Amino acid sequence: MTTHTMHTTHTTAGTTVPSGGASVAENARLDFAKSAPKVFRALIGFDVAAREGLDPALVELIQIRASHLNHCAYCLHMHTNDARKAGESEDRLHMVAVWREARHFFTPREQAALALTEAVTRVADAGVPDDVYAQAAAHFEEQELAHVLALIFTINTWNRVALSTAKVAGTDERR
Length: 175
Hints:
- This protein is mainly α and 175 residues long.
- The protein contains 10 helices and 4 strands; from the N terminus they run E-E-E-H-E-H-H-H-H-H-H-H-H-H.
- A two-stranded antiparallel ribbon has the order 1-4.
- Strand 2 and strand 3 form a beta hairpin.
- The protein is globular and about 45 Å long.
- It starts with a strand and ends in an 11-residue tail after the last helix.
C-alpha cells in the first residue's frame, strides 16, 4: 500500500487530486514494510521483545506519550485505541500529555516511566538527566528498566517510520 501526504478530496478527469491540488503520484511515499521487509520484521521483533514482561497499560502510556512528543498522529491514534480496548479510562488518556499537572491520575511507577519516556525521546535536548534515570531505576528492576528503555526506543523508531512515510491517522494496517 502507498500512503499519501495529504487527504484525497476530489477526483478530476479520472485523476485523484489531494486537497493541495497536486496529483497523488507527486505525494506518494513508499510502503516501508513492503520496501524493506527484513528491516520491518526486525522492528516488529524488537517491539515484541521490548514489551515482554511489561504491564500492557504501561506499554500504551509510554507509546502514547512518545507519540505526543514526536507529533505522530498515526501512532497516537493507534495506541490510544489499543489502550481503550485494554480498558484504559478516557480520563487517563486525556491526561497523558499533561501528566505532570495531573499526577493523581498516574501511579509513581507510571510517572517515572513517563518522565523517562520524555527524557529519552528528547535525548538531544539534555540527555537523560540522572534524577530521571534514578527515579525510574527506583521503580523498576534492572531487567524491567531495560525493557522500558527498549520500548521507548521502539516507539520512537515507529514514530519516525510513520512520520517519514506520511502514515495517515486512522488507517491502522494491523487489522
